[in-house]
Write a structure and sequence with these properties.
The complex is a heterodimer of chains A (193) and B (795).
Chain A (H helix, E strand, L loop, with lengths): L2 E5 L2 E5 L8 H8 L18 E4 L2 E4 L12 E3 L4 H9 L12 H9 L14 H8 L9 H14 L5 H7 L11 H17 L1
Parallel strand pairs in A: 1-5
Antiparallel strand pairs in A: 1-2, 3-4, 3-5
Chain B lengths: L10 E3 L16 H6 L14 E7 L5 E7 L1 H4 L4 E5 L10 E2 L6 E2 L5 E2 L5 E7 L2 H9 L2 E6 L6 H5 L23 E9 L2 H7 L2 E9 L11 E6 L5 E5 L4 H12 L6 E5 L15 H11 L3 E4 L2 H7 L2 E2 L2 E9 L5 E11 L7 H10 L9 E9 L6 E2 L6 H19 L3 H7 L20 H10 L9 E2 L2 E2 L17 E14 L8 E11 L2 E7 L9 H13 L3 E4 L17 H28 L5 H4 L2 E4 L2 E4 L4 E4 H5 L4 E8 L18 E14 L4 E12 L6 H20 L33 E4 L16 H18 L5 E2 L3 H5 L3
Parallel strand pairs in B: 2-15, 11-34, 13-14, 16-20, 18-19, 25-26, 32-33
Antiparallel strand pairs in B: 1-26, 2-8, 3-7, 3-9, 4-8, 5-6, 10-19, 11-17, 12-13, 12-15, 17-18, 21-22, 23-31, 24-25, 24-30, 27-28, 28-29, 31-32
Chain lengths: 193, 795
C-alpha cells in the first residue's frame, strides 16, 4: 500500500508498504529517518517515541497505515519543532508547515560530520550538557517525551519528571543525569521567557 | 560496492578550555546522538541489501534428526537458506577461549534458542516467515540444569570428547573449569573462632539488557572478502573468531565499529557476525541482521546464576578468622567467558577484607541452560552478594554495628589477597565505608505533603496501594572489590595510532584506535588525553576499525586504563618527534631547545619554566608526525590450579553503598529511596563521565536486587521471560537519587593514577539493597532478586 503523511513538516509518501509494517519501520527503513530507535519493538522501552498529531506514542506500536494523512515529529525534527513553538508557531505538531518553511527545513546546512553548527532545542542541548547521553540509544525517545512534558508542564517537580519519563528505559545512566538534564532544560526555558 | 549509509565518519572536537584530563569535557558524539544522526549498527542501510534471519531451536537439548529447508527456499523473495552443511570450511565452531560453540547446530542442540539455520530475503518479514517454514525434526534429550544433574553418575555429557585445556584438571566433563584457592590453616583458624556463621545464597540470572539490539551489516567486497559494520566490544577478537569460519585471511575481513547501543559484557561473544558474513558471501549482496528484543534474549550470554555456600568465623572482638566457601556458577551450554569468571569469583570471594586462612573453590558448570559469560562485575558480583550478607550476619551475631565490623576487617594497602598477591596501591575500604555512612540521610516520610500522601513516593506508586500504612524503612551497607583489566597472565595490551599535523593553520591531533565506544565515553577521554599531552585544542577521533592494531576489549573496567594508556604513550612518542623537528628547525634560535625540558601547551612549545619557544603550527608546517604503538600494563600470572596462588590481577577498584529502602510489608513491595555511593577512582579523567558510570552501575545492581531475572524452567531448560514485558529493568520511577562521593587516591602503577571504575559500583549496590530490605523486614533473604512473595511469605 501507499502511505501519505507528514514527517517533521514535510509531506512524505511511502510506497510498497506491507500492511504489517509499523510506523517505526517506515521511518527507519523507507524514509531514511533512523533516529527513532528499535530497542524492543514491543512498546516497552520508549526508544521509538515520536509525536503523532502532537501525542507521544511508541512508533513501533503504530501500524503504518494508521498514520495516513497525519503529522509525525521525530527526533530529527525536534529542534525545528521546538523553535517553531518558541516563535509562537504551531506547538501541537498538527498544523503543518508552510511550503516556504518546509523548503527552508530541507535546505538548512549543518556539518554532517560533527553536528557542530546544528541548532539544537533546549532539551537536546541540556542532555549533552548534563551528561545525560552515554550510549545514546534511549536518547531520541527520551528527548521527544521530555520535550512534550515540558510543553505541558514548564515547571515540573522531580516526581512529575519521573512519572512522565517512566515509559522510557535507559540502561546506562541510572537516570540521574537525565533528571539533571530535564531540570536544566526547564530552568533555561523559564529564563528565556 | 559503495559505502553504506550510516558509515561512521571522523568526529573533530574543539575545546574552548584546555579540555584536558580532569575536566568534564562533553562527548564529541553528543550532538550526533541528540539529533538522531548518530548511526548505530541497526541503522546501517545499503541499496539492494537483504535481511538475514536466524532460525533458533525451540527446545533446549535434542538430537536433530532432520532439517528440511525446501519450502523456505521456494519462498518468493528468499535469496539463500543455510544450515551446518553449507559452512564453507572445516572450522565450524568459535568461542572466546574454548571453541565449543557451533556457528550453526550440527546434529544436536544444547540450549533453547541455539542457531540452527539462516535465511536471507528482501524484506525482514519475508525472512522471518521463510525461517518459520524450515522443518526441524528434534528428538529431545533429558536436560541438565544444575550441579546435581550435571555431575550425576549417569549424567549425559553436554560436550563429549572435550580436548580443551581445562578438560584435564576438572573433576567431571560437565564442569568447564575449577579453581581452588587454599591458604593458611583453616582448621586451626576455625578453632580460634568465637562465632561461626554459614549461609547458602542464590544469585539469579541477570541480562545485560543493553538497548541497542545485536545488529550489523555485512557487505561483500570485490576481492572476495567482506566488510562488516558491527556493534561489538572487541573488533579484533571478533575478527580472530570469524575469519577461520569464513575461510578468509584476516585481511579480507574488514571490520568497522558501528554505533553501539550499550554492551555491559553482552557483546563480548559473537552474535550475528558470522551469520551476516556467511549470507553476504553466499548471496553476493549486503546483508543486514537486526535482532528484535525477543531474539536478543537468546542471542547473547547472560550473567552466571550462582549458588554460593559460605562459612565465616570471627573472634568475639570482631576479627575474621577464616573463610570456607564454594561457588557454583552455571555456565550454560557453551563456555564463553566461564573460565575467567571462575578465576574472578574465586580470587575475589573473600571481598575487601583481611582473611588469612581460606579454603575456596569455584566451578562453572556445563548445563543445558542459556550460555552465561561476561556481564559487568564478572564473577565478583555474585561473590559480593554472598560475603556481604555474611558480614551482616556476623555483625549481628557479635552485636556489633555492621559498618564498624566491616571497617575492623577492611583490607588496606599491603593486604594479601587469598591468592597471595599483595594489594600494592591504595585500598581505602574503611574510608569509603566511613564516607558513605557520613552522607546525610534522606528525610523520613518524604511522601507526606500538604495535600496528603504523594503515592508516587511510596512503594506501589500510582497503583495507590498504600498511603504509608505498613511501610517500614530499612538501611543497609555493602562494599566490594573488583579487579581491573584482564587477569591470570593474559597479554592485555592495547594499540593507539596518533597523528599530528597542521590543518587550516592550526595543529590538530588525530587519535585512531580499535577501541569499542559502547557509551562509556572512551572517545571523550581520548580527546582529553591528546589535548593534555600534545597541547592542542582540536582533536579528531577516527572511527574504530581493524586498520589499526587491537585495543583489547571494552570490558573489565580496562579501556581508560589500557587504551587510554596506549593513547597517552603514543602521544608521548609523537611529542618527542615533534620536538625533534622543532630542534631541527628552530634549535639554533634559542638554547632552551637543547637544554630545557619541553612541553606542548596551548598550541605552543614551552619550557617547563613556562617560556614559549614557538608555535606548534610553525614546527609542524609541512610535516606530519604519526606513531602507532602497542602499550601494556604490568604482566600478571596464572593462578596455580591446585592452590590458587599467583599474582593474577593488575589493579583493584573499590566502591561502597548505603541503601535506604521503604518496604510495604503487607504487599511485599519495595521502594528504594536512596542509593548512596562512595568510590575511589584514582583520578577522575572526566568527572561527569565518572558519575555517569557510578550511577549507571549502581542502577544495574539495584535491578538484580529487586526485579531482574531470566527465569528458566527447571524441567525443560526453556527461557520463560524473553521480553521487556516480562524481564523488568529499572525505570526512572524505580531508580532513586544516587548521591556519589568520589575519592581520588592515585594508583602509581596506572596512567595518571587512574582506576578502572565501571564495574565496582555494580557489586556493592545489590547487597546494600538486600541488607536494607533485611533491616526493614527482619527476613533472612538469601536469594536475589527479591520478589514480593519472598517478603510476604507466600513464595
Amino acid at each position: 500500500m501507499r502511505v501519505n503523511f507528514t514527517v517533521n513538516g514535510r509531506p512524505q509518501e511511502a510506497d510498497d508498504v506491507w500492511e504489517g509494517e509499523s510506523l517505526l519501520y517506515v521511518l527507519r527503513e523507507r524514509l531514511g529517518l533512523p533516529g527513532s530507535k528499535n530497542a524492543c519493538e514491543q512498546g516497552e522501552c520508549g526508544s521509538c517515541t515520536v509525536r503523532l498529531d502532537g501525542v507521544p506514542v511508541c512508533s513501533c506500536l503504530v501500524a503504518a497505515g494508521q498514520v495516513e494523512g497525519r503529522e509525525v515529529v521525530t527526533v530529527e525534527g525536534l529542534a525545528d519543532f521546538a523553535k517553531q513553538r518558541a516563535e509562537g508557531g504551531c506547538a501541537s505538531g498538527a498544523c503543518g508547515t508552510s511550503s516556504q518553511n518546509a523548503q527552508g527545513w530541507d535546505a538548512k546546512g549543518s556539518d554532517s560530520q560533527t553536528g557542530e553548527g546544528t541548532e539544537l532545542s533546549t532539551i537536546q542541548q541540556a542532555f549533552i550538557d548534563a551528561g545525560a547521553v552515554q550510549c545514546g540509544f534511549c536518547t531520541p525517545g527520551l528527548l521527544v517525551a521530555a520535550d512534550e512534558m515540558l510543553e505541558r508542564n514548564p515547571n515540573p517537580s522531580d516526581a512529575d519528571i519521573r512519572e512522565a519519563l517512566s515509559g522510557n528505559l535507559c540502561r546506562c545512566t541510572g537516570y540521574e543525569k537525565i533528571m539533571d538534564a530535564v531540570r536544566l532544560a526547564a530552568a533555561r526555558q523559564s529564563e528565556a521567557v | 560496492m559503495a559505502s553504506p549509509s550510516g558509515t561512521p565518519t571522523k568526529i573533530t572536537q574543539g575545546s574552548q578550555t584546555k579540555g584536558g584530563i580532569g575536566e568534564s569535557t562533553l562527548r564529541p558524539d553528543g550532538t550526533l546522538k541528540v539529533t538522531g544522526e548518530f548511526a548505530y549498527s541497526s541503522d546501517m542501510w545499503h541499496e539492494d541489501m537483504l535481511w538475514g534471519q536466524i532460525l533458533r531451536s525451540t527446545v533446549a537439548h535434542a538430537e536433530i534428526v532432520s532439517i528440511d529447508t525446501s519450502e523456505a527456499l521456494a519462498t518468493p523473495g528468499v535469496y539463500a537458506v543455510m544450515t551446518y552443511d553449507d559452512l564453507p570450511t572445516d572450522v565450524k565452531n568459535y568461542g572466546l577461549e574454548i571453541q565449543d560453540t557451533p556457528v550453526l547446530a550440527h546434529g544436536k542442540v544444547r540450549h533453547h534458542g541455539e542457531p540452527v539455520a539462516l535465511v536471507a530475503a528482501d524484506h525482514p518479514e519475508t525472512a522471518r516467515r521463510a525461517a518459520a517454514k524450515i522443518k526441524v525434526d528434534y528428538r529431545e534429550l533429558p536436560v541438565i540444569t544444575d550441579e546435581a544433574s550435571a555431575t550425576a553418575p549417569d549424567a549425559l555429557l553436554v560436550h563429549e570428547n572435550r580436548d580443551d585445556h581445562h578438560a584435564g584438571h576438572v573433576p567431571h566433563p560437565n564442569i568447564v573449569h575449577r579453581q581452588p584457592i587454599v591458604r593458611g590453616d583453616v582448621a586451626a583458624a576455625r578453632e580460634r573462632a568465637d562465632v561461626i556463621v554459614t549461609g547458602e545464597y542464590t544469585f539469579g540470572m541477570q541480562d545485560q539488557a543493553f538497548l541497542g539490539p545485536e545488529s550489523g551489516l555485512a557487505v561483500p567486497e570485490e576481492d572476495g572478502g567482506v566488510h562488516l559494520y558491527i556493534a561489538t566490544q572487541w573488533l579484533h577478537s571478533d575478527l580472530r573468531q570469524m575469519a577461520p569460519v569464513l575461510g578468509l585471511p584476516e585481511d579480507k575481513v574488514r571490520m568497522t565499529l558501528s554505533g553501539v547501543g550499550g554492551a555491559f559484557g553482552g557483546r563480548e561473544d559473537l552474535s550475528m557476525q558470522i551469520h551476516a558474513c556467511l549470507l553476504a558471501l553466499r548471496t553476493g549482496k549486503p546483508v543486514k541482521i537486526v535482532y528484535n528484543r525477543f531474539e536478543s534474549f537468546f542471542g547473547h550470554v547472560h550473567r552466571h546464576p550462582a549458588k554460593l555456600y559460605y562459612e565465616h568465623g570471627a573472634t568475639k572482638d570482631g576479627k575474621l578468622t577464616h573463610l570456607k566457601c564454594r561457588i557454583v556458577l552455571d555456565g550454560g551450554a557453551y563456555a564463553s567467558a566461564s573460565p575467567a569468571v571462575v578465576g574472578n569469583a574465586s580470587s575475589l570471594s573473600v571481598g575487601p577484607y583481611v582473611v588469612e586462612d581460606v579454603d575456596i573453590e569455584a566451578i562453572a558448570l556445563y548445563t543445558n541452560n542459556p550460555p552465561c559469560g561476561a556481564m559487568r562485575g564478572f564473577g565478583a558480583v555474585q561473590a559480593c552478594f554472598a560475603y556481604e550478607a555474611q558480614m551482616d550476619k556476623l555483625a549481628a551475631k557479635l552485636g556489633m554495628d555492621p559498618v564498624e565490623f566491616r571497617r575492623l576487617n577492611a583490607m588496606e594497602q599491603g593486604t594479601l589477597l587469598p591468592t597471595g598477591q599483595p594489594v600494592d596501591s591504595p585500598a581505602p575500604v574503611a574510608e569509603l565505608l566511613r564516607r558513605v555512612k557520613a552522607m546525610p540521610m534522606p528525610p523520613e516520610r518524604q511522601w507526606e505533603s500538604s495535600e496528603g500522601a504523594d503515592v508516587r513516593q511510596l512503594p506501589g506508586g500510582l497503583s495507590n496501594t498504600t498511603h504509608g500504612e505498613g511501610v517500614v524503612r530499612g538501611v543497609g551497607y555493602a562494599v566490594g572489590i573488583k579487579n581491573v583489566g584482564f587477569s591470570e597472565g593474559f597479554d592485555d595490551y592495547s594499540t593507539a595510532k596518533v597523528r599530528m599535523e597542521v590543518v587550516a593553520g592550526e595543529p590538530v591531533a588525530t587519535v585512531h584506535t580499535a577501541m569499542a565506544e559502547v557509551g562509556q565515553g572512551g572517545v571523550t577521554v581520548h580527546a582529553q588525553i591528546a589535548r593534555t599531552e600534545l597541547g592542542v585544542t582540536q582533536v579528531t577521533i577516527h572511527p574504530a576499525d581493524t586498520q589499526v592494531g587491537s585495543a583489547g576489549s571494552t570490558s573489565a573496567s580496562r579501556q581508560t586504563y589500557v587504551t587510554g594508556g596506549a593513547v597517552k604513550n603514543s602521544c608521548e612518542l609523537v611529542r618527542e618527534k615533534v620536538l625533534e623537528i622543532g630542534r631541527r628547525k628552530f634549535g639554533s634560535y634559542h638554547p632552551a631547545w637543547a637544554t630545557a625540558e619541553l612541553l606542548l601547551e596551548g598550541g605552543k612549545v614551552v619550557t617547563d619554566a613556562g617560556e614559549v619557544l614557538g608555535d606548534l603550527a610553525d614546527v609542524l608546517e609541512g610535516e606530519t608526525v604519526e606513531v602507532e604503538a602497542e602499550w601494556r600494563h604490568r604482566p600478571t600470572e596464572p593462578f596455580d590450579l591446585r592452590t590458587g596462588q599467583g599474582n593474577g590481577h593488575v589493579q583493584y577498584s573499590f566502591a561502597a553503598h548505603r541503601a535506604v529502602v521503604e518496604v510495604d510489608t503487607e504487599l511485599g513491595l519495595v521502594k528504594v529511596i536512596e542509593l548512596a555511593c562512595a568510590q575511589d577512582v584514582g583520578k577522575a579523567l572526566n568527572p561527569l563521565s565518572v558519575l555517569g558510570q557510578i550511577q549507571g552501575g549502581t542502577t544495574q545492581g539495584l535491578g538484580v536486587a529487586v526485579m531482574e531475572e531470566i527465569v528458566v524452567d527447571p524441567k525443560t531448560a526453556k527461557v520463560k521471560n524473553p521480553s521487556f514485558t516480562d524481564y523488568l529493568i529499572p525505570t526512572i520511577l524505580d531508580t532513586p537519587t544516587i548521591p556519589v562521593d568520589v575519592l581520588e587516591l592515585a594508583d602509581e602503577h596506572a596512567p595518571y593514577g587512574l582506576r578502572g571504575i565501571g564495574e565496582a559500583p555494580t557489586l556493592s549496590s545489590t547487597p546494600a539493597v538486600l541488607a536494607a530490605i533485611r533491616a526493614a523486614t527482619g527476613l533472612e533473604l538469601n536469594r536475589t532478586p527479591v520478589r514480593p512473595e519472598h517478603l510476604t511469605g507466600t513464595a
